[in-house]
């Protein structure tokens, strides 16, 4: 019998792959737990951030805002404006250019027309050059001008409105507010028609046009798009400027019509435009970030093949659009796909803080404009983001959308308040056969109280002049420039903001020689 002895190696074997596998599994587990915890933590931050939003405004979501804006066609002023716009063919996005529109822009681009309009606005008390008046009459009297203008005048009685916004793609940033922007052109058509009506002695018709311009503003309503509200503010400015010219061309205005316009200007000057826009930004950006977070929309496909205009795409576009709304220190600079909850939380804290400022914009403006480069600078992403930072805090290197809009809103408020006060002053002149010397002549019979200057919180100023008077606000710089409210050849923006009223003997002066605007000089302001 053979004895088979096998010597085995009793040393422990190195099972390296098992160790590596265990380590790998441990790493995967740690990463999974980290991601899960991070997602939970981010969601908790977001849920915490929207608690104040829900308390302040339960219907803050985009769908709720749009549902609340729906109205019947018969009370929708935007339908009237759109009808006039389409009739004239000035809605150049959706419709081919009509012959009337071709002639309209041909006139606007004709030699000397820009200097002509500048001259009319610099000297509202002077009559219009007969040759240019004939050109305007020829255009506006051609079909379908008279019918479209008659439709537009119905906006005088419009109290509300809601334009249809057009979204290209699932994201709300992919928006083209075509009809609203065309409303600015309709306002200009009404302005030109007012010039004609003043020349032919139809003062009341010209005042109806002013009221229709304010009706365009009301037709835009509480739309939350900043583009729409910039159009509204532009129409406010045109209405106030045109009202000044109508009074400078006539002394026989209807007191009842002036009273109606006074009420309309007062209402327009009290609209919470900044609040509407901030709420709209909050709802729209939250809507888009929710879609991006869910993966239903790919950020790299924004606008590709879906928009009729050139549009930036990808993360660069997101960075640009969000930086218009957020101070740079409040949001993640890298924009990796993971921090959507954090960005949404920062969005709500920022907008809620901005709303607190917007509610007291006029009271806070002098201090804010003195201490901060960016109106909406808030603290870093912390729970105390509802209060304004001190002057030593880091400031945004990108101008805030809300800051620019705030300046435009306050300027429009000042202009419309001065226009309302000018209505009261003109009513006093008609009754008393003289210009008011001080506010006590007007208040309280023609004006309940003296309007407040939105730029300094003080009553707006009334200054008697040799040829009339001026009612004015000190303007964004807070300096009293003694009622310098008329534009110049080099600047459309006056130093102060307000309305001039001329003595009857100084109204309707002969046409002045046009002054060409220097092409090598930049606007001072």
- Secondary-structure element sequence? HHHHHHHEEHHHHHHHHHEEE
* Strand residue content: under 5%
Number of strands: 5
Cα-based radius of gyration, to the nearest Å: 30 Å
Q: Overall 3D geometry?
A: elongated
Helical percentage: 40-55%
Terminal Cα span: 116 Å
Summarize the biggest pleated sheet: 3 strands, antiparallel
Total number of helices: 16
Mean pLDDT: 78
Summarize the structure.
This protein is mainly alpha-helical.
Structural key phrases:
525 residues; mainly alpha; three-stranded antiparallel sheet; two-stranded antiparallel ribbon; 16 helices; 52% helix; 4% strand; elongated; disordered C terminus
Would you mind describing this structure in some detail?
The protein has 525 residues and is mostly helical. It is 52% helix and 4% strand. The chain contains 16 helices and five strands. The chain has helices spanning 16-56, 62-69, 77-88, 99-108, 113-122, 130-140, 145-153, 178-199, 203-220, 226-249, 255-268, 273-294, 314-323, 340-359, 361-371, 401-432; strands at residues 166-167, 175-176, 461-465, 468-473, 497-502. Strands 3-4-5 form a three-stranded antiparallel beta sheet. A two-stranded antiparallel sheet has the order 1-2. Strand 1 and strand 2 (175-176) form a beta hairpin. Helix 1 (16-56) runs parallel beside helix 14, helix 3 (77-88) crosses helix 8 (178-199) and helix 12 runs antiparallel to helix 14. It is elongated. Residues 302-338, 369-399 and 514-525 have low confidence and may be disordered.
């Amino acid at each position: 019998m053979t004895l088979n002895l096998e010597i085995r190696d009793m040393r422990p074997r190195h099972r390296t792959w098992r160790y590596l596998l265990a380590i790998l599994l441990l790493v995967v587990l740690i990463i999974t737990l980290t991601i899960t915890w991070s997602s939970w933590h981010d969601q908790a931050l977001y849920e915490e951030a929207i608690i104040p939003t829900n308390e302040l405004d339960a219907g803050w979501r985009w769908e709720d805002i749009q549902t609340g804006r729906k109205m019947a066609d018969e009370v929708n002023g935007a339908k009237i404006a759109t009808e006039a716009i389409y009739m004239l063919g000035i809605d150049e996005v959706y419709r081919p250019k009509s012959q009337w529109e071709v002639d309209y822009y041909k006139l606007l681009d004709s030699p000397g027309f820009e200097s002509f309009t500048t001259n009319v606005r610099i000297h509202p008390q002077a009559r219009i050059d007969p040759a240019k008046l004939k050109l305007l009459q020829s255009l506006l009297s051609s079909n379908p001008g008279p019918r479209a203008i008659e439709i537009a005048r119905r906006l005088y009685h419009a109290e509300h409105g809601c334009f249809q916004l057009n979204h290209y793609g699932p994201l709300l940033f992919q928006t083209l507010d075509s009809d609203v922007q065309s409303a600015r052109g309709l306002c200009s058509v009404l302005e030109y028609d007012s010039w004609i009506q003043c020349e032919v002695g139809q003062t009341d018709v010209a005042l109806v046009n002013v009221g229709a311009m304010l009706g365009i503003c009301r037709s835009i309503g509480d739309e939350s798009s900043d583009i729409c509200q910039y159009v509204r503010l532009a129409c406010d400015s045109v209405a106030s400027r045109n009202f000044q010219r109508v009074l400078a061309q006539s002394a026989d205005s209807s007191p009842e019509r002036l009273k109606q316009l006074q009420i309309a200007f007062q209402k327009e000057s009290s609209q919470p435009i900044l609040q509407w826009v901030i709420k709209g930004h909050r709802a729209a950006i939250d809507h888009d970030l929710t879609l991006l977070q869910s993966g239903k929309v790919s950020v790299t496909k924004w606008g590709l093949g879906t928009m009729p205009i050139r549009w930036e795409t990808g993360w660069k576009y997101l960075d640009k659009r969000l930086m218009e709304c957020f101070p740079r220190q409040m949001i993640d600079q890298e924009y990796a796909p993971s921090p959507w909850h954090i960005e949404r939380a920062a969005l709500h804290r920022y907008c809620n803080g901005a709303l607190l400022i917007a509610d007291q914009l006029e009271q806070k403006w002098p201090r804010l404009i003195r201490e901060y480069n960016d109106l909406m600078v808030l603290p870093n992403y912390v729970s105390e983001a509802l209060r304004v930072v001190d002057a030593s805090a880091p400031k945004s290197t990108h101008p805030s959308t809300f800051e620019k809009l705030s300046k435009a809103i306050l300027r429009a408020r000042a202009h419309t308040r001065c226009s309302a006060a000018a209505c009261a002053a003109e009513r006093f002149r008609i009754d008393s056969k003289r210009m008011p010397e001080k506010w006590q002549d007007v208040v309280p019979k023609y004006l309940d109280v003296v309007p407040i200057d939105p730029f300094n919180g003080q009553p707006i100023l009334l200054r008697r002049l040799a040829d009339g008077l001026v009612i004015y606000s000190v303007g964004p710089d807070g300096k009293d420039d003694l009622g310098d409210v008329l534009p110049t050849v080099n600047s459309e923006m006056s130093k102060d903001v307000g309305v001039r009223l001329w003595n009857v003997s100084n109204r309707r002066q002969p046409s002045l020689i046009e002054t060409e605007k220097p092409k090598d000089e930049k606007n001072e302001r």
